[in-house]
UniProtKB/TrEMBL annotation:
The lineage of its organism: Eukaryota, Viridiplantae, Chlorophyta, core chlorophytes, Chlorophyceae. PANTHER family: LIMITING CO2-INDUCIBLE PROTEIN B_C BETA CARBONYIC ANHYDRASE DOMAIN-CONTAINING PROTEIN (PTHR38016:SF1), UNNAMED PRODUCT (PTHR38016). It comes from the Eukaryota. Residues 118-351 form the Limiting CO2-inducible protein B/C beta carbonyic anhydrase domain. This is Limiting CO2-inducible protein B/C beta carbonyic anhydrase domain-containing protein. Pfam families: LCIB_C_CA. It comes from Gonium pectorale (Green alga).
Length: 451
């Protein structure tokens, strides 16, 4: 059946309805829509195959947000870390749940018990993109700097970031610990586009945690691996060590680390120093607690490295921190249970022309389910994902086919031939290493220099 052309009246109706709703709510939201309108409409136009909406997008122009009467864009006072956000139970909204996605609203409610600021990953990225558009940041004129855990499960969030901002310069570390240093960060910054005489950077930094579809904290199902796995394994191990050994034995001076466990020992040391500063007893902590502590530590480390590496006279930048949350099916073999991905929002701000402005992503209007489906289709996932909508948030499924493909899981029974390959007779089994006596990474070797 041929697709019905998307008429100018329909386009005008959509735009008018959105603008009317925004004018009726807050002036700042109207400005956000004006700033992001061209990109959103052009994306919708591509999905609908209509040149009419492209013309609307091109004719809209861009706009830079103006401060409100309080002197701040959006609202002041939102600089605090996600880890210190209010734990008060919010009034549950009236959910309008997609019939294809039963239980998604309840899944979000379960996650927000632990992380009150949680947004579905597609909802989070769309709000970030809308907010940044008002300050001149786009995927064409900025470079994204991502700092996540090394766990392959974290690639889901990185894919979403790269769908909006292009390929990232990554500074990933075990548990999300930052070990790249100033030189490593400057290396990534030097790759930024230069548009209008300015470089622009968008920093994303998130440790991660799993809360499966049954609500079990720390549990995650992995393709072709029986039973439940865990995330974040490094933070689980660190919590166990801190409970067993106490903080003092791990509060070492910066620069000291285990050569066989460099990232893990640095992660533990930095968390231990922070907990000692905050006077927190690790024996009272849960996995959620240490994950939030890791977010505070890593966010502080990121901002310190930025202060050493970024010149605000030649560059504008944005920072988004928080916690990545895997809310996957408790058993990935169960095709009836959708897998979800969330972000517990932490620090969100931009620095433009040296002026820091804090952003409240909750003030950025959520897209409609249809719009979110279209924008999410630009990421590597295939097919239509189940979506649940509320008065303030959207929840979207991570399609199982994409998840399994991205993590390397077979969608059908795999065959492994354990017999000797035909080329086995050509395999060399004996090898004399000419560098067998070279110093090992955990050896303190005394070198003798030739005179």
């Amino acid at each position: 059946m041929p697709r019905t052309p998307f008429s100018r009246s329909v386009v005008t109706g959509i735009a008018s309805a959105l603008e009317a709703n925004l004018k009726a709510s807050e002036p700042v939201m109207e400005q956000l829509w004006t700033a992001a309108r061209p990109r959103m409409l052009s994306t919708l136009a591509r999905a609908e195959g209509s040149s009419v909406m492209r013309n609307v997008a091109r004719g809209s122009g861009s706009s830079v947000l103006q401060p409100c009467t309080c002197g701040k864009i959006l609202c002041p006072g939102h600089a605090r870390s996600m880890a210190t956000a209010s734990q008060a139970n919010a009034v549950q909204p009236a959910w309008a749940t997609d019939e294809r996605a039963p239980g998604l609203a309840e899944r979000l409610a379960e996650v927000t018990k632990h992380f009150p600021t949680a947004l579905s990953v597609d909802d989070f990225i769309s709000r970030v993109e809308v907010a940044l558009a008002g300050y001149g940041f786009t995927g064409d004129n900025a470079i994204a700097m991502s700092n996540l855990c090394r766990d392959e499960s974290c690639l889901i969030l990185e894919d979403k970031i790269e769908a909006a901002f292009g390929s990232c310069f990554s500074t990933h570390g075990l548990g999300g610990v930052l070990t790249c240093g100033v030189i490593g960060m400057k290396a990534g910054l030097s790759h930024s586009p230069v548009v209008g005489g300015k470089e622009r950077y968008v920093f994303f930094s998130f440790p991660h945690i799993a809360i499966d579809s049954d609500g079990k904290v720390g549990a995650v199902s992995r393709p072709n691996r029986p039973g439940a796995s865990a995330a974040c394994g490094a933070l689980i191990a660190a919590l166990g060590d801190l409970k067993k050994d106490g903080l003092e034995s791990h509060c070492k001076a910066p620069g000291q680390h285990d050569p066989l466990e460099p990232e893990y020992s640095i992660l533990k040391q930095r968390i231990a120093r922070r907990l000692a500063y905050e006077k927190v007893n690790p024996t009272d902590m849960t996995l959620v607690d240490i994950t939030k502590a890791a977010e505070r530590v890593i966010s502080t480390d990121l901002e310190y490295l930025i202060s050493k590496a970024v010149d605000p006279k030649k560059a504008d930048y944005a920072v988004f921190t928080g916690v990545q949350i895997h809310n996957w099916a408790a058993d990935l073999n169960n095709t009836d249970t959708p897998s979800l991905e969330f972000v517990g929002v932490g620090r969100s701000y931009v620095v433009v022309n040296g002026e820091k402005v804090h952003l409240d992503l909750n003030k950025v209007p959520a897209l409609s389910p249809r719009q979110l489906q279209i924008l999410a289709s630009a990421s590597p996932s295939d097919g239509k994902a189940a979506t649940s909508a509320s008065s303030g948030k959207l929840v979207q499924e991570i399609p199982r086919e994409y998840l399994m493909k991205r993590l390397g899981g077979a969608l059908s029974a795999a065959h492994v031939d354990v017999g000797t390959p035909a080329w086995g007779s050509f395999v060399k089994k004996d090898f004399a290493d000419p560098h067998a006596g070279a110093p090992k990474l955990d050896e303190n070797t005394s070198f003798v220099w030739n005179k």
